[in-house]
Amino acid sequence: MRILVMLLIVQQSTSVQVYIPASRSIEVARRVARDLGFDVANPEYYFDLMLTKDGKSPVGGYVSVGFYGHDNLIETFAISENTGQVVEPAACQVFEFSNLLPLQRAQQRQSGLKSKSQKELMRDFGCDRLTVVRNPITRDSR
């Protein structure tokens, strides 16, 4: 019995919380917005960390970045500190663009965790359904 308990403790301690610097979080959000068809070089667009009044992220374990145009919130990107997965909480979308894979692999290597399942992501954000977005969008008007 003691060996089993010790084994469980060792298995649980192999994952660690990983920190994502603000600059990297904003770069990830910039990649996602660009893949959604926005011209992120346009000065009318900007990114900013989203924090509660207490200075914390709205969802624990995620860094939230707001994407704004003309001072209006366009999208929110929640980036998992442990897996690097990116979710748009209001639209219940998870972004799986190929240019996000290096960050996700690095975060997962550091944390010792694998990508969350759709069910886990749905639970994290209170979504009934989660749409997976894999293909970048090309728009001339944005």
Bin the helical content: 25-40%
Shape: globular
Largest sheet: 6 strands, mixed
Overall radius of gyration: 17 Å
Strand content: 15-25%
- Output the CATH homologous superfamily: type vi secretion system effector-immunity co pseudomonas protegens
Count of DSSP H/I helices:
4
Mean pLDDT: 88
Main sheet: strand order: 1-2-3-4-5-6
Task: Walk me through what this model shows.
There is one protein chain. With 142 residues, the protein is of the alpha+beta class. The protein has four helices and six strands. It has a single domain, classed as type vi secretion system effector-immunity co pseudomonas protegens (Nuclear Transport Factor 2, Chain: A, Roll), CATH 3.10.450. A six-stranded mixed β-sheet has the order 1-2-3-4-5-6, covered by helices on one side. A hairpin with a 5-residue loop joins β3 and β4. The longest helix has 14 residues. It is globular and about 40 Å long. The chain starts with a helix and ends in a 9-residue tail after the last strand.
